[in-house]
Amino acid sequence: MPEKGLTLLGQEQNVYPVLRHASIAEKFPGRFVVRDHTADTRVLYALDRGEGYVLIETGMLAQAGWTAEQLHQYAMENLQKLPYTVKTQEVAGNRIHFISPPDGYAASRILLDSLLRQFDREKRGDSLGVAIPHQDVLIVADMTGEVGANLLARLTYDFASKGQVPIAVLPFFWEDGELTPFLVVSHDGNNKPKHK
After folding, report:
1. Which end of the chain is more exposed for a tag (fewer CB within 10 A), N or C?
2. What angle do CA 8, 11, 14 make, to 5 degrees?
3. Exposed (0-12), middle (13-18) or buried (19+): which is 35, by Cβ within 10 Å?
């Protein structure tokens, strides 16, 4: 439960989007401000308190007199201002980019369309994959063929199993603003990515 007296009034600069598995909205129906993202993920919102954050509940939104759309706009503007660095590793001809700043909003960068479009423009492989295994990392993969898809799928699963708040164990293909989850199926020694 939020602390008594916790308010969004005057806190426009301290709200951010966070990603969660879709099950949170089912577990706490109507409690949090939720926006659709993919079949498996939802956008929630956080009020940053410096040493951590609290998830924004629908009552807090009503008390502040904000609409869900206003909250989303404030959160996205704040997210765009946060600095980050990209660490890149090359594995079997695939470039894997890791974005994991210590601000608690690494995975939220999947919502920055301009960032993903930039990676897409610079890719050397044949597809762009993205993964948000938990809130503290965004993985962007410049993938070539099945080897790249298999590599990203393994990485995503590995990271999700180690994160405090797992979000999505399946990675996504990113194409022109659309995210499509995929599953790598092992069959007769061939690993073929299947659209979920």
Report:
1. N
2. 115
3. middle
Residue indicated by tokens 């990209």 = 86
HSE-up of 144 (CA within 13 Å, CB side)?
A: 9
C-alpha closest to that of 45 among 22, 15, 24, 76: 15
CA separation for the pair 136, 106 (Å, rounded): 5
Give the chain's radius of gyration (CA, Å): 18
pLDDT in tens, 89-139: 999 899 999 999 999 999 999 999 999 999 999 999 999 999 999 999 999
Instruction: Write b or e for each residue in 2-19: b if 16 or more Cβ atoms lie within 10 A of its Cβ, otherwise e.
Output: eeeebebeebbebbbbbb
Rama region for 103: left / alpha / beta (φ>0; ψ in -120 to 50; rest) = alpha
